[in-house]
Amino acid sequence: MEEFVTACPRNCYSTCSFRVQVENNKIRRILPYSGNLATPEGPCIKGLSYIERTHSPERIIYPLIKTSQGKFQQITINEALDIISYKLNSVREKFGPKSILWYKGSGMSGLTNEIGYSFWKAFGGTTITYGNLCWPAGLEAVRLTLGSVKHNVPWDLKNAKTIIIWGKNPAETNIQEIAFIAGAKENGSRIIVIDPLRTPTADKADILFSPKAGTDAALALAIAWVLIKDDLIDWNFIKKHVKGFDEFRQSLRISPVEAEKITGIPFENIIELAYIIGKEGPVTILPGYGLQRHLNGGQTIRSILSLSVLTGNIGKSGSGFNYANLQSYIYDNPKEPESYYPDHEKDLPFRRTISMAKLGRDMLNTSDPELKAAWIERGNPLLQSPDTNSVKKAFSGLEFKVVVEQFMTDTAAIADIILPAKDMFEQSDIIGSYWSPYVQFKPKAIQSPGEVMPENEIYFHLAKRLNMNIGTNLIPEPGNENIEEWLDNRIKGYSELNLDDLKEGPVLAPGLQQIAFEDLKFETPSGKIELYSSEAQSIWGVSPLPDYTPHDPGTGDELYPLVFVTPNTGSRIHSQFGNLKIIKETVQEPAVGISPGDAAKRNIYSGNKIRVFNQTGEIISVARISNRIPAGLVVLPNGIWYNEGGGGNHLITGRETDMGYGAAFHDNTVEVERVD
Ligand SMILES: Nc1nc2c(c(=O)[nH]1)N[C@H]1C(S)=C(S)[C@@H](COP(=O)(O)OP(=O)(O)OC[C@H]3O[C@@H](n4cnc5c(=O)[nH]c(N)nc54)[C@H](O)[C@@H]3O)O[C@H]1N2
Ligand SMILES: Nc1nc2c(c(=O)[nH]1)N[C@H]1C(S)=C(S)[C@@H](COP(=O)(O)OP(=O)(O)OC[C@H]3O[C@@H](n4cnc5c(=O)[nH]c(N)nc54)[C@H](O)[C@@H]3O)O[C@H]1N2
Ligand SMILES: [Mo]
């Protein structure tokens, strides 16, 4: 039995290290690796399920082509590459390279993903997407305020006296953090959760505050109002390090009594929370990403962050605003339009970008040239992008679609050619994290089955067929040794990192601040923390100060009175893992959660077939009554496949958040009716 130390490349906070034992080219065992201080207890159920996933009989391991009857038929990799290169070439000749959309999702992290850029750049460019479905409103909010996006190492949580988990559900989405939260609790910390739902995380809390979705900025600004009025702030810290305090103070309009009307939280509790934040420090706030998937998401994050700033809970042990820790995320560029990050990808001829949040509509509206073909890798936009009907329409109107995939997802099903995608153990790579401070090596541990090829090899062979002259420094020759050489070269700029050390185990990020901002240096235009940010106004057209804008479902709440929330769930990463036997056998079947009162009004019982609908679309699913859900809300995790009663994005309008070009998934309302 051979053993490797590896790291999970899913788009997840934890980025767990683990040991994998391999025998006869099969993954046999997955065991914890204690050398990673952020994830010493080993991976979650999804990590353990790799034993099944890698060798699943449902994996696509040969190229498939759609026949004229709409059925998939197996072809050889050489045939597939011949057809694809012919098609790409003819579309490019007739309509230009920008008539092809290159769509990348977040299904596999790793430095080698960059190789795709080199291919498409040399191809003459393509249309690409800007923005991101995940977290950009919050990222931008933190960047505007603190200058960079980082936080203390996870193990510093034990030093917090108060931990506020705000719109995050780590018990499902970051279980490794729960170990540190539990440790803090043993040390006497108080745990507070702020979430409209009673999540599994809330079960671990001392106090749960349940605001109406989308109203957190009002809650935060009312807390700020109390902090300032009752002198619970850190004057010294503010004088030295904060820009815009006076303007911020003067702008505060929302008293706790006002905030009660907006959020539904009793004003006495709001005052109590302000006193805890003001008096029981150090305070660490753990804001989540669900919280910022609202039209006002960026300003909401800025409002909440103002509480850490006013009370001096930045740059110290036990304190902080842990939105994302990009200290080990050293290689990844934010994907934004060139107009905003003029230096980013400047040399790439991707002159045309379309919105991630409005993908379907933007695809349909492109002209000069219209989109004619698409290449989709590592993503499942037919399930994960807002407004599924428009996304389906846009993709089905194209002449030619290639999807690189491991499984027959809702997106793969619409492909003309599916190329089988590698599994995490089938290629070496290097990955960072947005929570853990480690840079990690993920070694090749087994050979791919069938005719599976990593993307870089697919690109290498296509480049050859298209007579593109790209150096092997950009697209290496096939073979894992060549990829490792490429990785070695790629990290040369970081003197503290080298491949040999990384092969030994996780390495702390170069220049890591275990306590973020402990030098009290802020890379903002003023060099201070910016409560008042001119950039917020000049780039995004929002108020330079944090503010609260009411929820706007865009429809009229009378017709569709229930707010629709689609968070993540413990047993999947978005649309991945739910198809595996181990997950099906251990987790309840997916269903639409509804409160007892809303169900009773509609004569709905658990297990009833229901139609969930609004002006954008509808889905047929199954109801589950839950007293974890407040009146006025229905909940369906995202990532549930159509054939499982999922596809919540049929009900979600494609709209961008106030900053960062995120998707406002959570500002939609629906109605539910029983159909059995
Ligand atoms: N198991 C698992 N782990 C994952 C993922 C996964 O799919 N599965 N995905 C990974 C990725 S890519 C991401 S982005 C993260 C996201 O993980 P989280 O940051 O935890 O975000 P979500 O699960 O989207 O939402 C978290 C909570 O936000 C709440 N929420 C929604 N709107 C509001 C609001 O207006 N106010 C408040 N206070 N709360 C609100 C929801 O009720 C939900 O409980 O998880 C990562 N980890
Ligand atoms: N309604 C609603 N929708 C949401 C969200 C929400 O909260 N609500 N959350 C959004 C968020 S936070 C995110 S991050 C996005 C995620 O959306 P996507 O990035 O589309 O993520 P996944 O569903 O994980 O799909 C990734 C696909 O990549 C495939 N894959 C895995 N490894 C490889 C590989 O090496 N190569 C290739 N080619 N493919 C591979 C997997 O099989 C999977 O089908 O979804 C967003 N969608
Ligand atoms: Mo995400």
Descriptive notes:
By secondary structure, this protein is of the alpha/beta class. It folds into three domains: 64-130 and 330-431 and 438-508, Rossmann fold, CATH 3.40.50; 145-326 and 515-540, Dimethylsulfoxide Reductase, domain 2 (3-Layer(aba) Sandwich); 562-674, Barwin-like endoglucanases (Beta Barrel), CATH 2.40.40.20. The protein has 22 helices and 27 strands. β12, α13 (297-310) and β13 (320-321) form a beta-alpha-beta unit. α4 runs parallel beside α17, α8 crosses α12 (267-279) and α8 (216-229) packs parallel to α13. One ligand MGD binds at residues 11, 105-108, 133-134, 289, 293, 377-380, 384, 404-407, 409, 421-422, 566, 573-576, 638-639, 648-649, 652, 665.
Bound small molecules, by name, code or SMILES, are: ligand MGD, molybdenum atom
Please name the CATH topology of the largest domain: Rossmann fold
Q: What's the overall geometry?
A: globular
Total number of domains: 3
Number of strands: 27
- The percent of residues in helical segments reads 25-40%
Low-confidence stretches: 334-347
* Distance from first to last alpha carbon: 53 Å
Largest sheet: 6 strands, mixed
- Strand pairing plus helix content: what structural class? alpha/beta
**Rg (C-alpha, Å):** 25 Å
Multimerization state: single chain
CATH architectural arrangement of the largest domain: 3-Layer(aba) Sandwich
* Count of separate DSSP helical elements: 22
* Biggest sheet strand line-up: 5-4-17-16-15-6
Give the class-level CATH name of the largest domain. Answer: Alpha Beta
Mean pLDDT: 94
Q: Which band does the percent of strand residues land in? A: 15-25%
